[in-house]
Structures are given as structure tokens and as C-alpha cells.
Amino acid sequence: xxxxxxxxxxxxxxxxxxxxxxxxxxxxxxxxxxxxxxxxxxxxxxxxxxxxxxxxxxxxxxxxxxxxxxxxxxxxxxxxxxxxxxxxxxxxxxxxxxxxxxxxxxxxxxxxxxxxxxxxxxxxxxxxxxxxxxxxxxxxxxxxxxxxxxxxxxxxxxxxxxxxxxxxxxxxxxxxxxxxxxxxxxxxxxxxxxxxxxxxxxxxxxxxxxxxxxxxxxxxxxxxxxxxxxxxxxxxxxxxxxxxxxxxx
Length: 249
Ligand SMILES: [Zn+2]
Fold this sequence. Notes:
mainly alpha; two-stranded parallel sheet
């Protein structure tokens, strides 16, 4: 018996040939490639399960394969409790590691808004320190959003400066492949609008906000004819789905 490499050079070009795959396996080759290829060719669910079982034994650390095997088992025996609980266990572990990677190990990070505002000369480092020291209702300023609001309210920056800094931050995030978090980032990421359009829309949103007029980003984009009502609704729905998909919903 010999262990083949993966992919297996002996069956290259013959992965659709069931007789050839079987012959290769009957010769005693421990061939992951052949078992996987065979599992795709067989139509009977039991045969498929058996092929995947052999493949799973040859690659015990391949989680995708373990999942495929367990799913095949459940097709044959829907009440197989052991398979079901093993499958749930793998899925839960995966879900946890996904959440962990996106939320606890977000490295490298995009710069904070305050740092960007300083780097573009919108405020001085001393002004940033003062504002950050400032406590609002006894709560320290912890979010970029609140920092932006406070700077605007104190007249330290203009809406367009803030919008510019937010765009720079968005571009850094997308370069660092940090998943889009807000609708605006998503729209740029998916090429619905350009970063320049987002910058204009954000500036407009902030300007109106200062006058006490609250509009969503979508409403502003439509008002400015940057996107149609139909398209923004579709994009918002997609964004919501993409957002929840990270949590396995
Ligand atoms: Zn082989």
C-alpha cells in the first residue's frame, strides 16, 4: 500500500473516469484525490458517504472534508445523533473563530479618526488631546462618531474636513481588508458610489445634521442623485445580509 500525494499525478486527467479511479484504489493506493473524485461521480448517497469516509480518514485535519463527510452521513441516516452533534460542534467552533478573527484580532487596525484629523492638519495634536480629555456627561469619548460630533459642535473642524477624514479612514479600512462596517463603506467597497461621492454625501449629511435636519446616508445619496432609490434599497439589503453573514445568520 502506498500513500499518494495530493493532487495525485497518477490519476491526473482521469478524475472523471470511474473505472480508472476504482482500479487505482484497488491497487492499494491510499489516494485522497481518488476518493474525493469518486465521491463526486457516484450518485448513490451511500456510496458517496463511503467515499467521503475513506477520504476523511486520509485527511483527518481537513475540516471542510469532515463536514462534507458528516453531511453525507446525515443524508443516509438523518437520525445519526453522533454525526449531528459532531457537525454542530465543528460549526460552533468555526463560528466562534470567525467572530474572534473579525472582532478581537482586527490587526492591523485603521487609524483612529482623531489621528487622521491631526495628520491632515484639520486640528492640532493639542486640540485633539483637549477634546479627548473632555468628558461628555461623565463618559469618556470612546468612539470616532462622538469625537467627530464634538469637534463639529465646538467649531474646531468643518463638516467637509470631517467627511474628508472619514473617507481616508474608510480607504484605509478597505486596504486593510477590514470588513465594511457601515453602509457608506459598503457602498464604496461594492462600487455603488465613489469615495468622492461618499465624501460629498457625508459632508452634506453633517451640514444638515448641524441644522437639526436628520437624514440617513441613503436619503442624502438619493437627494444628490448619486444613486437611485431602487438601487440604494437593494444595496442596503445586501449590506445587512453581508453584515449578519459574519455571525452565521
Ligand atoms: Zn493516487
